[in-house]
């Protein structure tokens, strides 16, 4: 990997390698974080956050929305990608160009080979207490394109496991502006998010996470 991330800034953090094909770019999206949050507000004014029902019949503590050609949905029938928002019957909002540009720059900075642009983007919103249990992302057809995940707002503890649910996992903090990428041999790792907590002096209400993928 020969990433020259922030080549002009001697204090910029180095890409952190978490696996053969998994890289954490701390603070990579900090400069545009406010714009990304404004984009999320615009998207979710049309495709509102909702608490999806899992196939097991439970309401997810994380509120979700999507943008792109395909959006991630869950109900009693299972998890899948759908081209329309089931709440409105309308297509999902487009992925903002700013997000696609960020994804492209992050792939380059993390040393990933050129690959197709994402066509699906899941947007998660965590209020304090919301969590995401260990899972794999395996509903996408193209694992050759890494998932690009952007963290915004409140920090969270991310669980980073192996290819089997019972494998041991590591934990790491994901903070406002961090970008995590993973693909290839690391694409099927189990992962999750511990219940989000809010420091008494932290005025942010939520953690947001954007994950862009190639689903079709
Ligand atoms: C989250 N992220 O950080 C949930 N999945 O809120 C994910 O589930 C995820 O960050 C695949 C790849 C990157 C991710
Ligand atoms: Fe995931």
> Low-confidence spans: pLDDT under 50, at least 5 residues?
none
- Say which molecules are bound, naming each kind only once: N-[(3-hydroxypyridin-2-yl)carbonyl]glycine, fe (iii) ion
Q: How do the helices and strands follow one another from N- to C-terminus?
A: EEHEEEHEEEEEEEE
Instruction: Give the name of the CATH architecture.
Output: Sandwich
Largest sheet: 7 strands, antiparallel
Please give a handful of descriptors for the protein shown.
alpha+beta; 13 strands; 4-stranded antiparallel β-sheet; 2 helices; Jelly Rolls; 216 residues; binds N-[(3-hydroxypyridin-2-yl)carbonyl]glycine; globular; binds fe (iii) ion
3D structure, described in words:
- This protein has a single domain (15-213), classed as Jelly Rolls (Sandwich).
- The protein is built from two helices and 13 strands, in the order ββαβββαββββββββ.
- The protein has helices at 33-46, 97-109, and strands spanning 16-19, 22-25, 63-68, 71-75, 78-82, 120-126, 132-135, 147-153, 156-160, 170-174, 179-182, 191-193, 207-213.
- A hairpin with a 2-residue loop joins strand 1 (16-19) and strand 2 (22-25).
- The mean pLDDT is 94.
- Bound molecules: N-[(3-hydroxypyridin-2-yl)carbonyl]glycine and fe (iii) ion.
- Fe (iii) ion (FE) binds at residues 135, 137, 191.
């Amino acid at each position: 990997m020969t990433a020259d991330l922030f080549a002009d800034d001697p204090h910029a953090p180095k890409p952190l390698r978490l696996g053969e094909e998994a890289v954490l770019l701390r603070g990579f999206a900090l400069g545009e974080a406010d714009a990304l949050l404004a984009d999320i507000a615009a998207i979710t004014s049309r495709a509102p956050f909702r608490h999806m029902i899992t196939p097991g019949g439970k309401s997810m503590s994380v509120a979700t929305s999507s943008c792109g050609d395909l959006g991630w949905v869950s109900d009693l029938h299972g998890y899948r990608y759908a081209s329309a928002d089931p709440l409105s019957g309308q297509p999902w909002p487009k992925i903002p160009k700013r997000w696609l540009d960020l994804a492209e720059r992050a792939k380059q900075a993390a040393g990933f080979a050129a690959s197709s642009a994402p066509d699906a983007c899941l947007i998660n919103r965590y209020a304090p207490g919301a969590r995401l249990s260990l899972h794999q992302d395996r509903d996408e057809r193209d694992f050759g394109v890494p998932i690009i995940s952007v963290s915004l707002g409140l920090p969270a503890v991310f669980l980073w496991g192996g290819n089997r649910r019972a494998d041991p996992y590591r934990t790491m903090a994901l903070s406002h502006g961090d970008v995590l990428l993973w693909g290839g041999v690391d694409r099927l790792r189990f992962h999750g998010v511990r219940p989000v907590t809010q420091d008494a002096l932290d005025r942010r209400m939520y953690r947001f996470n954007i994950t862009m993928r190639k689903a079709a």
